[in-house]
Amino acid sequence: MDRIKRITSADRSAYIAAKQRWDSIAKPLGSFGLLEEMVQKIAAVHGTADVDISARTAVIMCGDHGVVSEGVTQCGQEVTAECAKAIAEGRSNVNALASAYNVRVMAVDVGIAQDVECDRLIRRKTVRGTRNIAVEGAMTAAETEAAIVAGLDTAGELASSGTKLIITGEMGIGNTTPAAAIASVLLELPPEKVTGRGAGLSSAGLQKKVAIVKRAIEVNLPSRDKPLELLQKLGGAEIAAMTGLFLGGTYYRVPVVIDGVISAAAAAIACALQPICCEYMLASHCSGEPAGEGLLAYCGLTAPINAGLRLGEGTGGVLLVPLLDGALALYRDSHRFDETNIERYVELK
Q1: Residue 36 class from Cβ within 10 Å (0-12 exposed, 13-18 middle, 19+ buried)?
Q2: For position 349, what pLDDT does the model report?
Q3: How far does Cα 88 stand from its chain's mean position?
Q4: What is the C-alpha separation between 234 and 313, in angstroms, rounded?
Q5: In the chain, N or C terminus with fewer CB closer than 10 Å?
Q6: What angle do the packed helices 237-252 and 141-160 form, to 10 degrees?
Q7: 3-state secondary structure the chain
Q8: In angstroms, rounded to a whole number, what is the distance separating the alpha carbons of residues 338 and 81?
Q9: Of the listed 313, 339, 343, 347, which one is catalytic?
């Protein structure tokens, strides 16, 4: 955890150099919009205008939640283990997308309630499912820190092995409930404004879920000014591990992509712990869950994809990859003003 204290800002000079390269392309200034800004951010993180994201890894953190016992989901938490195994073995939704865009996928067990028989699942279990947040705190301080460290260490290992872009993802039945609770506290909004249907609750199920989020906040009395304690009281092992991934990307200087609302909740906690983290984050899509836009705004980010996505597993994060690849093709290979007879555009003041 001491690594968090040693985090430094991204390289502003590389950011400026990347902007100058964009502005040299024979097109209207800023006309590739948010994707130009993203390439500049990656340049700043890597410390060079020669941006390379050819080695990219989606990390799917997996964990269970005791609050499932309150009936806030359509299925039981045993589904977490089944889906984690499918991801590890390359059979799930994120794997199908990742294979199309040359993204490596790794699944990490940081808090699945049961042991999963799968050699390809990375085991960094810090807890066997969290406690029921409607009754008590989700984790102990030690469990929370261990999960964050698991994310930090994973980011460090990926950086050492040459990964240039990390995509966050999760698998944890019931985890939209703790994400909604975290969002309610951080964004200072009532639970009914940030709680969604998750994997497909009925209207009655949604009302029950809102009531559970309210109860969790009343029981645990979290504070938005104490983000680590907030994560401990209302979060989950996979949320804490993704928080560690965001912090680790910042420490090891690898850009990290936010997926959906669970990932965004982890990103927001990371920003609350260390505001510099936002310089190292890229938003992929605005989740179809109601807290999605607010959590991204908390991190100072805007997502280029707004398609009502809420599948999870890092799928929305992976969809950012072809957009970035397209932007980089333009950034590297398009004709430039000094190579043409086109008059250079002037930035209006």
Answers
A1: buried
A2: 62
A3: 19
A4: 21
A5: C
A6: 40
A7: CHHHHHCCCCCHHHHHHHHHHHHHECCCCCCCHHHHHHHHHHHHHHCCCCCCCCCEEEEEEEECCHHHHHCCCCCCCHHHHHHHHHHHCCCCHHHHHHHHCCCEEEEEEEECCCCCCCCCCEECCCCCCCCCCCCCCCCCHHHHHHHHHHHHHHHHHHHHCCCCEEEEEEECCCCHHHHHHHHHHHHCCCHHHHCCCCCCCCHHHHHHHHHHHHHHHHHHCCCCCCHHHHHHHHCCHHHHHHHHHHHHHHHHCCCEEECCHHHHHHHHHHHHHCHHHHHHEEECECCCCCCHHHHHHHCCCCCCECCCCCCCCCHHHHHHHHHHHHHHHHHHHCCEHHHCCCCCCCCCC
A8: 56
A9: 313
Position 176 scores a pLDDT of 96
**Residue 92 phi, psi (nearest 5):** -100, -175
d(CA 160, CA 178): 32
Counting every residue written for the chain, the total comes to 349
Q: Comparing C-alpha atoms, which of 94, 71, 99 is closest to residue 83?
A: 94
Q: Phi first, then psi: what are they for 53, rounded to 5°?
A: -125, 30
pLDDT at 348: 63
The pLDDT value given to residue 341: 75
Active-site residue, 188 included: no
d(CA 59, CA 243): 12
CA 249 from centre of chain: 11
* Mean pLDDT (10-residue bins), the chain, 349 residues: 91 98 92 97 98 98 97 92 98 98 98 96 97 98 98 98 98 97 98 91 91 98 98 98 98 98 98 97 96 97 96 96 98 87 73
- Burial status of residue 308 (CB atoms within 10 A of its CB: 0-12, 13-18, 19 or more): exposed
